[in-house]
User: Fold Chlorophyll synthesis pathway protein BchC from Enterococcus pallens ATCC BAA-351.
Amino acid sequence: MSKMMKGVSKQAPGYDQMEFIDLAVPEATGDKVLIKVAYTGICGSDIHTFKGEYKNPTTPVVLGHEFSGQVVAVGDQVKKVKLGDRVTSETTFTVCNECDYCKEKQYNLCPHRKGIGTQQNGSMANYVLAREESIHLLPDGLSYEGAAMSEPLACCVHAMYQKSRLELQDKIIIMGPGPIGLFLLQIAKDIGAFVIMTGITKDAHRLELAKKLGADVVVDTMKEDLAKVVEEVTDGYGVDKVYDASGALPAVNASLPLMRKQGIFVQVGLFRDKMNELDLETIIQREIAYVGSRSQNPYDWPIAIHLLAKGAIHIDEMITKKYPLEEWRTAFDKVMEGNEIKVMIESNPGEF
Assistant:
């Protein structure tokens, strides 16, 4: 008889439709690796899935894609990963391996990609299955809690290293002081850029944290004049780059005229609506490159893990709550209240 485990499952489309269910522990066959899960970070997309706003997931599916743990079984085709390895994993579970994107290992763009926690059972369970190619070993000094943040951090590395080549002398705006915005901030400060972090009044405590994490200027756009700040900091030229982690159209349109001509705007945050009224006139007149940044790919992960391991990311400041797996609903409620930064679910408390 197969061994059983618990998992947090989205059972059907629509609001909530979430259950804490019994399911079989998956078997590690072929190139697959079975991981005993230590921690899973709750992502904004998990909340969208909970609310029924995210069309991506297959149902039923166990959620969770930001995780860490220990290898407990490997398939017969696994070559390098060993039992007992401390690991994290990319979210890519299957790809076609035939398209142009796969040939360049840009798995985030494969049209046939299936992801962990969206189309394949994820890590909000006692165990999760991953493919060997997606596995990354953890450096000795990196905690399981820290490693569970490597996926969102890799998304930010993708935006800053691959999609825009952030440089030391750049003056930038990061919009939205949620977890993604704060990760972007810490990467930018590690590189040495000058950062203006923006938010709204209800983000006061997050903007305070941003200041603590190294933001050069923080701006509450409901109370302060962002244009005036940018004018002073850039001698009227405008910022070199903008990274939007808010998915808030007014913020995006307010920042476009504050960019240096031929600047780069990187869209990281997702908008609520598919179609939006963008200030295209400014994009044209200022020759702005407006770039989308989707998820992460294998090139981003070693950098993310290196940043975590060397202390460039303030792990303890980012994780504000932890809950055992069976208290997943309380954990989701805490995220939805909007006062926490990163909330972690502990899958096997006391076993690591």
In short: The longest helix spans residues 150-162.
